[in-house]
Amino acid sequence: MNCKRVRQIISLQEPLDHRSLQHLEQCSACRAVRIQQERLDTLLESWDLQTEPSSRLLASVRAGLGHEQAAARRDGLRWFLRQVQLPMAGARRGLAWGVSFCLVLIATTATVHHWQAVRQQRQAATAAGAVQELQALDQDSELLQTWDMLSSDGDAGSKTRQTYQATP
Amino acid sequence: MDAARERACMMSMKLSPVPAAEAAREAARSDADTQLMLRFQEGEETCFELLVHRHSRPLLHFLTRMVASPQVSEELVQESFLRIYQARQRYRPEARFSTWLYRIATRVALNHLRKCRKDRFAISLNAGEDGEPVWEPADQAPGTEEDLLRRERAQRVRRAIGALPERQRAAVLMHKYQGLDYRAIGEALGLSQAATKSLLFRAYETLREELRDLLEGGQA
Questions:
Q1: Secondary structure of chain B: what % helix, strand, coil (to 5)?
Q2: Has residue B15 been placed in a domain?
Q3: Using a CB-CB distance cutoff of 8 angstroms, which residues of chain B are in contact with residue A8?
Q4: Interface touch B61/A42, C-beta < 8 Å
Q5: Nearest to B28 by CA among B128, B95, B117
Q6: Which range of residues forms the domain containing residue B167?
Q7: I need a labelling partner for B130 at 20 to 30 A (CA). Which of B14, B17, B48, B171 fits?
Q8: DSSP secondary-structure letter at B218?
Q9: Distances from the Cα of A133 to the Cα of A130, A145, A148, B47, angstroms
Q10: Residue A77 in domain
Q11: Partner-chain residue, chosen from B77, B150, B214, that has the shortest CB–CB distance to A57
Q12: pLDDT tens-place string over residues A103-155
């Protein structure tokens, strides 16, 4: 085992295996490095921090999260508006055509419905008129029949009347 | 966050079924923080607050050592948690939550250092010389020689670590002070385990060299 490998093990504070220990027994430079590393560990531990997070840290994190959420909502709205505005000219033209088409469609449909309704009313009115005419004809026919009957009775009556008139 | 809420959250975590997964990911999945993160992903905002509560202190220490300024580091802690919040839907329980957390925090710190490499970091590194020390030893009782020596040693350590290249510094801080293993450090820095070991080895070699007088004098 070479010095570099042993020094790496020492520096990284990994457990020394049998071969490393054998090397250390033979190499005074590596033994010195080991002692230096142990002292360095102790020295590094002297850099102790007692800093505590300030009481406003959680509050500021919360405030930051609030800003973040608000920004996310704003970004969402901006994204939507961007999507709408991206093909600006094309979108406006398309929107205009779409609205016009819808208006024409609505107007046409309303007109067709209106005329259909008017036609149906007329047809209904025509049918009702025909029925009335037929009913009137039927009444006329009944009247004529009645008239005929009265006419035959009328002849007898006229004869009676003539007889009555002829009688002084 | 009060203890009752924390207990309730932890109790409900124990009751929730752990999905069967690969053996390699089982440890990560059974990690309490990972469970909290998964529950947060499902919409439980209180779990995120619990994660902030549990990790803000170690993260603050890591970032304070990393950027050499407690004031800035608190802002970076906040930014790190905001990024976690933003990326919550992308989180996958393939590693421990702390690994993911330190990956994000390291990226935040490195971005910050790159942004103000030339001015702010140099100023803060020399802050101790201007009579306004950025860090003070834990138990300072001014006046005694022992305290002065301890303060000086801490300052030397701070400067030596601050002088390391950024990735080496992050690796040493995660290894020495945050107790992360090579795999976690490697994932945080985007390196393989072998590369991480090599990076750490070089960093410790540099530190031994920089602090040779203290180490040979036996003052440590």
A1: 75, 0, 25
A2: no
A3: 197, 201
A4: no
A5: B95
A6: 25-216
A7: B171
A8: T
A9: 5, 18, 22, 89
A10: no
A11: B77
A12: 999 999 999 999 999 999 888 888 888 888 888 888 888 888 877 777 665 55
